Amino acid sequence: MSNSLTLNELNLDKLSYIFNSESDYYSHLNQILTDLHPFLSNYDSVMGNVELVLGEAINNGLTHGNKGDASKQIKVEVWMENTVLFLSVEDEGVGFNYNDVPDPTLPENREKLTGRGVFLMKSLADLVVFESNGSKVEIHFKL
């Protein structure tokens, strides 16, 4: 498979997934990654980052956004434009102040239990954009 193959070339403009907060998110994450593998098989380093960042975004939505409420859902969308992979994860929570997440690398924050996931996402992706008051995140990976 060549590096120039995209989802759009195979008429897969967007992959969409919806699941509730009580479900096993690992099985959903594995399904998404399995669906993406044919398109990213030549991008091993990106695939590893996609797995970590997408897993973190889904877990944040389930845990912090929906607070495990089984009546609430997570929506994940995946698409490509040119050489950029886009991931969108949206929960049904009230959001959070994404500008106020403490930097976990600062000495005063190293023992805090929060902020590492957002830091990880921003470190591994090319761009992370929070929308809808923080209840939706769009993540970009350049291929």
Shape summary: globular
Number of helices: 3
Biggest beta-sheet profile? 5 strands, antiparallel
**Approximate strand percentage:** 15-25%
Overall average residue pLDDT: 88
- Strand arrangement within the widest β-sheet reads 1-2-3-5-4
CATH topology type: Heat Shock Protein 90
How many domains in all?
1
Distance from first to last alpha carbon? 15 Å
Query: Strand-and-helix sequence, N→C?
Result: EHHEEHEE
CATH architecture: 2-Layer Sandwich
Oligomer kind: single chain
What level of helicity do the residues show? Answer: 25-40%
| CATH top level class name | Alpha Beta
Radius of gyration: 15 Å
Number of strands: 5
**CATH evolutionary superfamily:** Histidine kinase-like ATPase, C-terminal domain
User: Which consecutive residue ranges, at least 5 long each, have pLDDT under 50?
Assistant: 1-6
Q: Assign the structural class, choosing from mainly alpha, mainly beta, alpha/beta, alpha+beta, or little secondary structure.
A: alpha+beta
